[in-house]
Q: What sequence folds into this?
């Protein structure tokens, strides 16, 4: 059983690396959808010994929202803004992947320093959760287009969700439903923002928004 | 000296060119061609060995030494690779460093022989070869290092004999990641698609092939034979991890040989179904392999 959990977590790490290194918009959206499916499977696997309606609902809800609705919303935003080209990021793709390796080492070191009570899943869950959070943050910081920042935000939230699986077992449903709802609103709002940025400026590069400021040295 | 391990060395020396035939046959089937005979590599080697060598006046002894030293280094590395549970003829703690070093030595002499000709095309190929193999070395060493904590051994023979079905159950994800990294190294080091195309005839896009353009006759035969042996050596390590031994000598041998054949067919399939990467994207591909091996090592050391 533990091996299956580990395999899903390793796949999660690999999708994070692919997201850091991928050059194509469509592939990135597919990858974030794949993460949603993996998280759903992970939910079921972690609670496999006492699987109940609650767990099943949570898994199915996660998969529908993260692998169905979010990609659909992002694709729609993409279609309406008519963005095809991906912009070269601040941090090159190879460097992003290498930074990701450092972050992975950091997350494993951090989780070894962080004894968590009542964690019933394998000890790999916490490092992977940290790594997803870091990878999400890296995506938000190092990419230029608003779309990639939405995806980075989703990866970040996937990390928090993984963390929730490991820790908040009892209140998990409550916490997760709240988070999912927040996220849905956030992606919705960000989709609208992307649309407006693109309509006003003919692109979705957030970098160039800095020219809006009054301060011109 | 282990006598049973010598059987593998002799077997590899005999069967290695056959793998090239298998790869080419697989590619031919995918392309709908009949393809060359399975033993074409042997015919080519015999043909080349019967010819005389021509040396340009601008070359020095380095050019003549290149193929010989490369082949010798690869044959020596073959002595370090175990076959199933049988330890290799040469084994000591830390011999994986020597293994990587011998492959690097072979490459170094191919490269300086190419530079010795003074041809700009060969210089270009040499530059690429060195760049890519420098990036392919970390995944090779880290991938092999992943096996060390799992098996408690630091020699190739000990590591490959220590892997069993139980190891796969215990650390399956880490082993699978290490194997994926080693497969990328296998494809890169043997100048296969997606890194290099062994069939290309445009000097501008060649990597490995362009370095051997000025060699002829027996020298070229040595280079071809060395390439076939390198395919076998790296393949044998990969198969050693994928198909754990312990079923008895005969079955081990059958398993290994069919494993090597399957690896050759897999290489043919990869070559037929994937496109070659743009040269600027190759470093990223190799960095990806490096990440896989780091991840595998971290999973094991955790």
A:
């Amino acid at each position: 059983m533990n091996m299956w959990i580990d395999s899903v977590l390793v796949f999660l790490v690999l999708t994070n690396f692919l997201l850091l290194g991928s050059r194509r918009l469509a592939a990135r959206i597919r990858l974030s959808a794949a993460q949603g499916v993996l998280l759903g499977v992970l939910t079921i696997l972690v609670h496999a010994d006492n699987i109940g309606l609650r767990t099943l609902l949570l898994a199915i809800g996660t998969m529908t929202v993260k692998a169905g609705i979010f990609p659909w919303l992002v694709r729609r935003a993409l279609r309406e803004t008519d963005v095809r080209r991906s912009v070269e990021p601040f941090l090159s793709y190879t460097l992003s992947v290498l930074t990701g390796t450092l972050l992975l080492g950091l997350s494993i070191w951090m989780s070894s320093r962080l004894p968590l009570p009542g964690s019933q899943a394998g000890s790999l869950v916490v490092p992977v959760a940290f790594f997803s959070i870091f990878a999400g943050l890296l995506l938000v910081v190092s990419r230029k287009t608003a779309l990639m920042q939405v995806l980075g935000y989703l990866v970040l939230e996937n990390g928090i969700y993984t963390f929730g699986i490991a820790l908040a077992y009892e209140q998990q449903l409550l916490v997760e439903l709240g988070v999912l709802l927040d996220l849905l609103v956030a992606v919705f709002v960000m989709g609208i923002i992307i649309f407006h940025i693109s309509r006003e400026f003919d692109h979705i590069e957030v970098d160039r928004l800095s020219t809006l400021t009054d301060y011109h040295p | 000296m282990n006598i049973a391990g010598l059987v593998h060395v002799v077997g590899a020396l005999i069967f290695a060119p056959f793998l090239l035939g298998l790869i080419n046959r697989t590619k031919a089937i995918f392309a709908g061609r009949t393809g060359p005979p399975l033993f074409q590599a042997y015919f080519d080697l015999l043909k080349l060995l019967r010819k005389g060598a021509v040396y340009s006046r601008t070359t020095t002894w380095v050019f003549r030494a290149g193929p010989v030293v490369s082949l010798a280094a690869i044959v020596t590395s073959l002595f370090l690779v175990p076959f199933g549970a049988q330890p290799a003829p040469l084994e000591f703690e830390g011999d994986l460093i020597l293994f990587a070093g011998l492959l690097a030595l072979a490459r170094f002499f191919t490269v300086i022989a190419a530079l010795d000709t003074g041809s700009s095309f060969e210089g270009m190929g040499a530059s690429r070869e060195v760049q890519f193999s420098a990036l392919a070395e970390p995944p090779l060493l880290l991938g092999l290092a992943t096996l060390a904590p799992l098996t408690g051994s630091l020699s190739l023979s000990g590591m490959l004999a220590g892997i069993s079905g139980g190891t796969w159950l215990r650390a399956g994800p880490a082993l699978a990641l290490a194997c994926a990294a080693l497969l990328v190294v296998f494809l890169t080091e043997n100048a296969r698609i997606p890194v290099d195309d062994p069939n290309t005839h445009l000097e501008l896009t060649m990597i490995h092939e362009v370095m051997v353009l000025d060699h002829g006759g027996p020298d070229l035969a040595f280079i071809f034979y060395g390439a076939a042996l390198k395919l076998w050596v790296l393949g044998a390590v990969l198969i050693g991890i994928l198909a754990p031994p312990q079923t008895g000598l005969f079955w081990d041998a059958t398993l290994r040989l069919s494993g090597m054949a399957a690896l050759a067919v897999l290489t043919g399939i990869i070559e037929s179904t994937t496109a070659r990467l743009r040269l600027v994207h190759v470093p990223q591909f190799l960095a990806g392999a490096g990440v896989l091996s780091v991840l595998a090592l971290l999973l094991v050391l955790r």
Notes: The mean pLDDT of chain A is 78. The CA atoms of residues 39 and 162 of chain A lie 7 Å apart.
